[in-house]
Amino acid sequence: MRCMLIALLVAVASAYRDWKGVDTEWATHPDRTAEWYEEYAGGRRPELAPAITTVVANKSSVVKLECVGCPFRVRELHPEPEEWQEPPQDNSLLLNFTIDASSGLLLNGRSVAPLALPLHIHAFQVPANFSKDHMEKAVNLRLMDDSWNLGTKFGTFELQYEHTVVGTREPGKSWIQFDVTGILYTPQIYAKSGNGYYLLKNEDQKIVQILLRETAEPHQISMEDVQIIDRKDRAKPYRMECGRLAMARTVFNPLEWDRYGKIGTWSRAFYMLWSKTRDAFWANFTFLPILVILVPVIVLFRWMARKQQEVAVPVEDDAEAALLGSEHEDAPPEHDDVPGCHMEDEKV
Ligand SMILES: *[C@@H]1O[C@H](CO)[C@@H](O)[C@H](O)[C@H]1NC(C)=O
Ligand SMILES: *[C@@H]1O[C@H](CO)[C@@H](O)[C@H](O)[C@H]1NC(C)=O
Ligand SMILES: *[C@@H]1O[C@H](CO)[C@@H](O)[C@H](O)[C@H]1NC(C)=O
Asked: Which keywords does the record carry (predicted)?
C-alpha cells in the first residue's frame, strides 16, 4: 500500500514537472457550454474541429471519427466514481495515423501496417463538438503520443476492429481500411457490470480508409489519401489472375484475448500451462521432476501450434463476399493457394 502511494506521488511529481507552465486546462477542465456562449459571447460558438486534421502532409493525420451511439464516460476533476452519461452526448474517437519510417503505418502508436495480432489499440473519446482550437492544442502537445502522461477529462477505450488491406492494380499502392467495430472500457468493468462495451453497428457508422503508397528505392511509405466513408462505400478488391481477391482481412476483439493468447486456442492453453508452471517452479522448487517431463511436451506443442498458425490463410470467404457486394454473392471466390498468387501489398 505504502509502495503504491509512493509510486503515485512520484508519477504525479514527474507529470507536474513535465507539464508546468503548459496550458493543459482544455484537457482537464470542463468546456464552456453552448449556454455560456449564448450569454457571454453573443452566441458565437467556437469553430468545430474538422474530421481530418493533417499534421504533416502525407505523413501524419488525426482523424476524429464519430462514434455513433457510443456510451460517454464522464470524468471530472474531483472524481466521484466516473459515470456513464444518460443519454450519452454525441462523441468521437481520436485516431492518430502516422507513418513511421522504420515500422510502417502507426495508429495511436501501434503498427497497423504491417499488423500482427494481438494488437491492442486505445483511443481517446472526445465530445463530438470538440473545438478546432482544442484539436490544435491536442496536436501540438501530442495527446495521442506515448509520452503523454497527464490525466485528462477524456476517457480512453480499447478498440475492437476489422482491418482490411485491399490491393490496387497499381504496384505499391494499397488501401488500409480501419473499421472500429466496438469499444471496450475495461474487461473487468464489463464482466462485473455489463457496462463499458459497445458495438458500433449503427448503419451511419463510418470507417477510415487510407491509401498507402510504398516505394522500394528509396524505401518510403506515404499516405496519399485519408478518407472517412460509409462502410458500404469502401474500395473493393479486384480479382487477381489466379482467381483470388487482392485483399486480406484481420479482425480483433480484445475480449477474445488475454495475456496468454487468443481464448480457446491450443497455443494459448499451452502457453498458459507453460507460464504457470514456470511461475510455480520459481515459487516452489519441488516442482522440478514434473517440469522435467512437462517442458519437452510443452515445447513440442508450442512448436506445433506455431506451425498451425503459419498455415492459417488470412483471407476469409465471408469478408470477401461482404466486400464484393450483392452482384458477386452467388460466385464465392476460390481460395486454393496457387503458387505465385499472393497479394503483393499484403506485407506493406
Ligand atoms: C457541446 O455538446 C454538449 C453536449 O451536447 C453541450 O452540452 C454543449 O453545450 C456543447 N458545447 C458547445 C460549445 O456547443
Ligand atoms: C499526398 O501526396 C499526394 C501526391 O503523392 C497528393 O496528391 C496529396 O494531396 C497529398 N496529401 C496530403 C494530405 O498532403
Ligand atoms: C501521433 O503518433 C506519432 C507516432 O506514434 C507520434 O510521434 C505523434 O506525436 C502523435 N501525434 C499526436 C498528435 O499525438
From this structure: Membrane, Signal, Transmembrane, Transmembrane helix
- pTM over 0.90, yes/no: no
Cis bond upstream, residue 114 (ω within 30): yes
What mean pLDDT, rounded, does the chain reach? 83
Cell 499502392 appears where?
Answer: 173
Cross-strand pairs, 106: 98, 111
Helix (H, G, I), strand (E, B) or coil at 258: strand
Q: Which residue has the higher pLDDT, 64 or 282?
A: 64
pLDDT in tens, 211-259: 999 988 888 999 999 999 999 999 999 999 888 999 999 999 999 988 7
Q: Is the dihedral of CA 333, 339, 345, 348 positive or negative?
A: positive
Select from 212, 225, 226, 227 the residue to mutate for testing ligand 2; criterion: most ligand atoms less than 8 Å from CB.
225
**Closest listed ligand to the CA of 222:** 2
Residue 28 C-alpha to ligand 3 middle, in angstroms?
Answer: 20
